[in-house]
Amino acid sequence: VRLHDSISEEGFHYLIFDLVTGGELFEDIVAREYYSEADASHCIQQILEAVLHCHQIGVVHRDLKPENLLLASKCKNAAVKLADFGLAIEVQGEQQAWFGFAGTPGYLSPEVLRKEAYGKPVDIWACGVILYILLVGYPPFWDEDQHKLYQQIKAGAYDFPSPEWDTVTPEAKNLINQMLTINPAKRITAQEALKHPWVCQRSTVASMMHRQETVECLKKFNARRKLKGAILTTMLVSRNFSVGRQTTAPASVSGMGGTTAGIVEQAKSLLNKKADVKPQTNSARNSIVTSPKGNVPSAALEPQTTVIHNPVDGIKESSDSSNTTIEDEDVKAHKQEIIKITEQLIEAVNNGDFEAYAKICDPGLTSFEPEGLGNLVEGMDFHRFYFDNLLSKNSKPIHTTILNPHVHMIGDDAACIAYIRLTQFVDNQGRPCSSQSEETRVWHRRDSRWQNVHFHCSGAPAAPLQG
């Protein structure tokens, strides 16, 4: 899908893409009156051409799957478009490196599962899985147990069972075998695959026989994908609707029966009604409750609170995907650590607790913030002034909301978190006020402890808070 332009306005960024109206390729196939091996060849040719273009400009998609194959329009013979580059990476030439554990389970390559260096061949492996499905309507690797699924993939344990594969030409099977080669160095490339006889000579090599059984299997395959997507959506909505105060622990599924059966029933209802479910924001989700210092009874004051919205959880959430895109568990855990320690730092600021704040920050902390009037401030003395003269003496209620935290790991011992900080407080006249700032914190781990080494804040001074 081509990006034509980008437009920036205050508070918004617009991306202008091709208008793609044809829906999913796999949904179009099951609506056809006639579908043959030659049609599958034409489909994979267009997919490979898109992949080749990406690879020639140094882009690896990393998440090729049916959900990301769209048709440009509803016209007959509309072009296949490759969408969703959210996990794409840039590589230099034929560079192989460890870029992290990312993709969708059934389409992951053996080298990714083994956490080995990888590159462009991961896209060809996914194309092999897609081609297999295009020909018979079900995937080459499948197990409800994800561990067993991964074992199948790493072993390259797939076959061409009878009777459905008996009518598929040997050339089609040969191309699949070359795409699903375990060793990425021996795996066929996109350019080579486009020169395969089954692709470039389809009129004489690929079978023209109508594959009704494939269409029927694809209908079931699509239905399973949609049902799983609806279940995932229901679980996400349930999580967002759930009420309670907690830190980084996930919210329990509630409001939909709380059981798997309840979720499935709700999902079926979603499928039947084709409802557009939109999660609602719940300000009580993932909150930290702290109290102002002093001897004022807790009932007399509203608690000072930090609320984290949309915490990084390592899962790319999709309402129309049969699978979730996954991230390395270690990276996911590290990101949760960064969110947690950021919560603790802001809690210390809310409480005016300089001792707790200093333990979390590096003594040489550097910062750019509005109160510094554009100067780079180094050390803790600048911040101590606000703690000693304002924060520790503040007894008015404070509520801080952290919106959309994004964590980027820089190796194992460094990280950067960016977020929007919304602060609600009561001024000296007793009027409720709000201030907003965009903040970035750089963290470094020393002796198994994370410390804030740099802080950048833009926007208006965050009165009555600093730090």
UniProtKB/TrEMBL annotation:
SUPFAM superfamilies (alphabetical): NTF2-like (SSF54427), Protein kinase-like (PK-like) (SSF56112)
EC number: 2.7.11.17
Catalytic activity line of the entry: L-seryl-[protein] + ATP = O-phospho-L-seryl-[protein] + ADP + H(+); L-threonyl-[protein] + ATP = O-phospho-L-threonyl-[protein] + ADP + H(+)
Compositional bias (Polar residues): 279-293
A family per Pfam: CaMKII_AD
Keywords annotated in UniProt: Calmodulin-binding, Kinase, Phosphoprotein, Serine/threonine-protein kinase, Transferase
Gene3D superfamilies listed in its UniProt record: 3.10.450.50, 6.10.140.620, Transferase(Phosphotransferase) domain 1
Stretch list, region Disordered: 274-299
Domain called Protein kinase: residue spans: 1-199
UniProt GO molecular function: ATP binding; calcium/calmodulin-dependent protein kinase activity; calmodulin binding
Superkingdom of this protein's organism: Eukaryota
InterPro entries per the UniProt record, alphabetical: Ca/CaM-dep_prot_kinase-assoc, Kinase-like_dom_sf, NTF2-like_dom_sf, Prot_kinase_dom, Ser/Thr_kinase_AS
UniProt record similarity statement: Belongs to the protein kinase superfamily. CAMK Ser/Thr protein kinase family. CaMK subfamily.
PANTHER family: SERINE/THREONINE-PROTEIN KINASE (PTHR24347)
Chain's role: CaM-kinase II (CAMK2) is a prominent kinase in the central nervous system.
Subunit structure: CAMK2 is composed of four different chains: alpha, beta, gamma, and delta. The different isoforms assemble into homo- or heteromultimeric holoenzymes composed of 8 to 12 subunits.
Name of this protein: calcium/calmodulin-dependent protein kinase
Organism: Nothobranchius furzeri (Turquoise killifish)
